[in-house]
Amino acid sequence: MKIIKVEFLIKKGPFATSSTFKNILDEITKAISTVTHPEGSGQFILNPTRQANGVVPIKKNFMQSLVGNDWRLEHRMSIASRLKPGPIDAVKKLSDGRYFSVEWETGNISSSHRALNKIAIGLLDGVLAGGILVLPSRTMYQYLTDRIGNYAEIEPYFPVWKNLQIKEGVLAVIEIEHDSLSTAVPTIRKGTDGRVLR
User: Which residues are catalytically annotated?
Assistant: First the structure.
């Protein structure tokens, strides 16, 4: 799988330029590059049938790669605000006690907004040093589960997060896409996300 773009909505303070963050970003980008289909093909080839490919199995491969680098899955933040956000897909604990988070989108565009807001709350409360949301490109989107969140749909709202009054931290969105298309490969099965097939 390839990365089309890394868009920084917030990149401020010492952490954003630290070797710790550089290593974290390397781990995330390498985890994305290891996602393959079919398994063992060495690349991510997508069957170009509209709305036919699931997204949950793709996310699982990515998460397994992060676990190999000491990331924790499904972590729930303890924050000072009254809002009690759901668990974060994956976090890595930093030496100062804060965490860095990653969310891989498997829901609709509302879920993408919630994911970025969850990271923003963590930054504001000082629980997170940063976070990244991984989203499919608009080109990739058409072959995935109907109405899945995608980069093009969330991009017009980036000014909201860019204008947050945060002195230190990282908030970014990574746009991903298949390496190639082929009707010769099987569609990716749809996993379950709640009661919905994704």
Answer: 105
Classify strands 99-104 and 88-93 as parallel, antiparallel or unpaired: antiparallel
**Half-sphere exposure (CA, 13 Å, Cβ side) for 92?**
23
Whether residue 97 contacts residue 118, with contact meaning beta carbons closer than 8 Å, is answered with no
Note if the pTM is more than 0.90: yes
CATH topology of domain 2-185: Restriction Endonuclease (3.40.91)
Q: Helix (H, G, I), strand (E, B), or coil: what is residue 54? A: coil
Please state the domain extents for the chain.
2-185
Tokens of 106: 């498997």
Give 151-166 pLDDT, tens digit per residue: 999 999 999 999 999 9
| pLDDT tens-digit readout, 70-117 | 999 998 877 655 566 678 899 999 999 999 999 999 888 999 999 999
pLDDT at 43: 93
